[in-house]
């Protein structure tokens, strides 16, 4: 999983500040290395490896003792379970709907936790990037969703995914924030003396 460099972190914070200068909306950006351990996927992979190991041992050595077969299966299970559990493998192998649902749930929880739901103008926007799961979620308050949701969010997510495939996650995040800022500027123009109610920083989980 790619970590953002210090320069990329600073660029993201600068992009948040720049976006907020053109709109009254408040932005929060979150980058999560992995949002869930996906134990079920690791367990299924380990059990499948154990089953195949047992079949392989029986085929290669029909006279192998039950203890030898069991030991081989235990080793196979432990190896593949740990490989999946301790690396992004389980997240990558998890079904896309499962990954999307977990990312969406975390994004909504963070939206509430960071106080975006309590903004007086109801103009908070949260952008979540889950690296291991390869998921992007945008959560906005109801006032924003009514004016700019749906297709606009899909376009931002699609652009981010295209840029992130090259490995430049930081640059993709900066570009996404600029796009969100432009969208918000059309619907929520800046106010004369607006207060910055949410800290301009990148949250890394």
3D structure, described in words:
The chain has 205 residues and is α/β, with parallel strands linked by helices. It has two domains: 6-36 and 95-204, Diaminopimelate Epimerase, Chain A, domain 1 (Roll), CATH 3.10.310; 39-93, no CATH class. The chain has helices at 6-21, 39-60, 66-86, 89-93, 96-113, 142-148, 151-164, 169-187; strands spanning 26-32, 124-130, 135-140, 202-204. A four-stranded mixed β-sheet has the order 3-2-1-4, sandwiched between helices. Helix 2 (39-60) runs antiparallel to helix 3. It starts with 5 loop residues before the first helix and ends with a strand.
Briefly say what this structure is.
With 205 residues, the chain is an alpha/beta fold. 60% of the residues lie in helices and 11% in strands. The chain has a four-stranded mixed beta sheet, with helices on both faces.
């Amino acid at each position: 999983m790619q970590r953002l460099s210090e320069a990329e972190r600073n660029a993201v914070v600068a992009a948040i500040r720049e976006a907020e200068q053109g709109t009254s909306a408040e932005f929060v950006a979150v980058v999560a290395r992995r949002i869930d351990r996906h134990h079920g996927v690791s367990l299924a992979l380990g059990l499948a490896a154990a089953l195949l190991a047992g079949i392989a041992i029986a085929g290669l050595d029909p006279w192998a003792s039950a203890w030898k077969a069991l030991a081989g299966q235990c080793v196979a299970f432990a190896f593949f379970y740990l490989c999946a559990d301790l690396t992004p493998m389980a997240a990558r192998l998890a079904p896309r709907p499962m990954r999307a649902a977990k990312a969406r749930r975390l994004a909504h929880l963070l939206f509430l936790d960071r106080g975006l739901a309590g903004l007086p103008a109801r103009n908070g926007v949260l952008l979540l990037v889950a690296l291991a799961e390869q998921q992007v979620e945008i959560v906005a308050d109801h006032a924003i969703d009514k004016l700019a949701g749906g297709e606009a969010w899909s376009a931002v997510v699609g652009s981010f995914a295209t840029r992130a495939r090259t490995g430049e996650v930081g640059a993709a995040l900066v570009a996404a924030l600029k796009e969100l800022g432009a969208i918000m500027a059309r619907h929520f123009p800046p106010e004369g003396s607006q207060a910055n109610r949410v800290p301009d920083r990148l949250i890394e989980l």
